[in-house]
Design a protein that fits this description.
Order of helices and strands: EHEHHEHHHHEHEHHHHH
Oligomer: single chain
CATH architecture of the largest domain: 3-Layer(aba) Sandwich
CATH superfamily of the largest domain: HUPs
Radius of gyration: 22 Å
Distance between the termini: 35 Å
CATH class of the largest domain: Alpha Beta
Bound molecules: tryptophan
Length: 336
């Protein structure tokens, strides 16, 4: 067990899962968790959610929705450790131990923080306007998430690579000062995973307001797909799949054979409405079963809660002994 590679990733609980999250993160993670050669840890980063979301109802709802999503899509919680960050009190404790070895200058260089400062300067505000310490210290909390479980590999989007470099830097400083306690984690950015375009053709993202929620009921899903932007080419005109958002979405769900015949249909002048109908059917077939399981879970939050608490117990079997060891290492010790 311990010789296995550990893979860990966190999902911030601020939003409702959409097709882009599904294709880009959730589906590959669940597939990876089935591989025998790795031990996987997935968690709901609700402490991180507080940095950018001050709506308690939304944090709670998002936590439920994301947990139900992963379970409905078949995450096997006997093979992977699935938990909520805030159920692991050792994480905030480790955050403090790490904070005390983290150079302030390192945090000054964090992209998210720097972007907020730049926006303030541009708006002729005080540079620190509306920046809380949560945003500033975000990378330390994230380092604690990762180092707590000595993860080797951390699948993340490109925007998180700097945070992984910071986690390594922090781990190295701690190891240097107090002995070799931490594995140095590596970011794993999957270049093959498609970034899905949204309804306007740009990358599907909450910040562009162009998302298609994952769990729309059938009719609404169809309607949302029909709204994906196309050009004004008529039925019968040959079309270029590689510049069409609908084709990009299609190919993220299709088999190689399905992609091939759709490309042929484009060359033969398939109507946009027909492409969208086929896209709807393809996605709907994949999501039909999980959608029912999702509905059952959402209507039974106590069951989701039990799953998360069971996951937390398994996680804490690892975090408790490590925090004991770390306390000892830094000199927080029993005096007797
Ligand atoms: N910061 C990550 C994001 O916004 C979420 C996250 C929090 C995370 N803690 C983590 C990801 C630890 C990987 C490992 O996507």
């Amino acid at each position: 067990m311990t010789s296995k590679q550990r893979v860990l990733t966190g999902i911030t609980t601020t939003g409702t899962p959409h097709l882009g999250n599904y294709v880009g993160a959730i589906k590959p993670a669940i597939a990876a968790s089935r591989h025998e050669d790795a031990e996987s840890f997935y968690f709901l980063a609700d402490y991180h959610a507080l940095v950018k979301c001050e709506e308690p109802e939304r944090v709670q709802r998002s936590t439920l929705e994301i947990a139900a999503t992963w379970l409905a899509l078949g995450l096997d919680t006997s093979r992977s450790v699935f938990y909520r960050q805030s159920d692991i009190p050792e994480i905030p404790e480790l955050t403090w131990l790490l904070t005390c070895v983290t150079a302030k200058g390192l945090m000054n260089r964090a992209h998210a923080y720097k972007a907020a400062v730049d926006a303030n300067i541009k708006a002729e505000e005080d540079p620190d306007f509306s920046i809380n310490m949560g945003l500033y210290s975000y990378p330390v909390l994230m380092a604690a998430d990762i180092l707590m479980f000595n993860a080797h590999r951390v699948p993340v989007g490109k925007d998180q690579v700097q945070h992984l470099e910071m986690a390594r830097d922090i781990a190295q400083r701690f190891n240097h000062r107090y002995g070799e306690h931490f594995v140095l984690p590596e970011a794993e950015v999957d270049e093959h995973v498609a970034t899905l375009p949204g309804t306007d053709g740009r990358k599907m993202s909450k910040s562009y307001d162009n998302t298609i929620p994952l769990w729309l009921p059938e009719k609404k899903l169809r309607k949302a797909i029909m709204k994906i932007k196309t050009n004004s080419q008529e039925p019968g005109e040959p079309k270029d799949p590689d510049s069409a958002a609908v084709y990009a979405v299609y190919s993220a769900f299709a088999t190689a054979a399905q992609r091939e015949s759709m490309r042929q249909a484009f060359a033969d002048g398939i109507a946009w409405g027909e492409v969208k109908q086929q896209l709807f059917e393809l996605i709907n077939r994949e999501l039909e079963g999980p959608r029912e399981r999702y509905a059952a879970l959402i209507n039974d939050p106590a069951r989701v809660e039990r799953e998360l608490l069971a996951g937390a117990e398994r996680a804490r079997a690892l975090s408790r002994p490590l925090i004991e060891q770390l306390r000892e290492a830094v000199g927080i010790r029993c005096l007797a």
